[in-house]
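Quick one, T. Sequence first:
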Amino acid sequence: MSDAVMEAGLLEKTKKPKSPAAELIVEVAREHKVSPFRQMREMLGLHFGSTKLSFDEYYSNGVYSPALNPSQKRQFVGEKGSYKLNCLLSPLKMTLRARSFISDKILYSAVIDSLGFATTRTQAALSKHRSHGNITTLRNADDLSAFLRQSARYPLFVKPGVGSGSVGSALITSYEEASDEIIMANGGRANAASFAEVVAKDYGAGFLLQDAVQQHSDLTDVIGQAVGTLRIVTVLAEDNAPQVLYALWKIPSPDAMSDNYWQSGSMIAELDAASGEILQCRRGAGPSREELLSHPVSGRAFRGFKIPHWDKVIDITTQAHQIYPNFGVFGWDIALADDGPLIIECNANPHHMLYQLATGRGIYNDDLAPVLDRTINRSKKRLADLSAEWKEEKRKH
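Structure tokens:
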């Protein structure tokens, strides 16, 4: 991370993991009784297999575990395998144009808001060339620093207009006029002008400044003030009715400003898709991954806790999925306020490794594979029908 970005207090991009070190291979051999030769054989087979699991993903997902049989190991996907699966669920030939729109957080939020779905309110957006209708448009660093000093309503959550993994985001709680500094939720401080210069330089094509979500009091009692969003993955199967494939709760590290799981100390809980009840919660990856029975700060028990407004969470995600019926899969980031759920983001390429880290199971497990197969078959049929329609239209004109 550059000194300028560190000064600005924005979340940096996670560094790509290196190939597994010899110490890790030895640790797995010692603690799990899996020989280095067996580890290498399994890694090579999974890396060149259909799920494209990289060497570091073999370890981060715990696929080396002797409790997993060969069939169960092949159920895990890596980043490439996850993308390949999502392209089968939502074929690019019928979703490519819409993907760029969905990934545009400014436009997508505005559209779902206009359709009546609860979402976060955008106070302003930075862009060198683009305008945003009724949303205040900031053109440069001077505009942004002036907005932070004079017009912003705090607390404020800021993030790039395009991107993932919370990279470039920050939760700003206030502005201190005496020092001309913005105050971050984690206690960090940044000079308003310096912050604006970094953002304008790195994210001049699009940057959002939104109302920070006031999290439901029941969730805050368990995890603290930092907002932990729900990751709800929905699929559109043969009957064209969206259903929840799986549900997770991304729980921020006690000293974090966002719920990105790759930040040290972050946790992720598996939820019962029918009831919203926590089934288990884990922290870390690979040999350091551990199951947590309670929150490390509040002491509140995880297992058995139920997410409030669960019926509304299911309703908002399944109904919003129907806006784009060509997509077989979506990953929704949902925040929960006292009066109900808010759509934070829609992901056309949900990262299924989150599910694997939360559960210790591959995404192609015996429970989910039949649903995935039905969704893939439905998407193939829809693509064939659309292709026939396109061909007929072309013949007519």
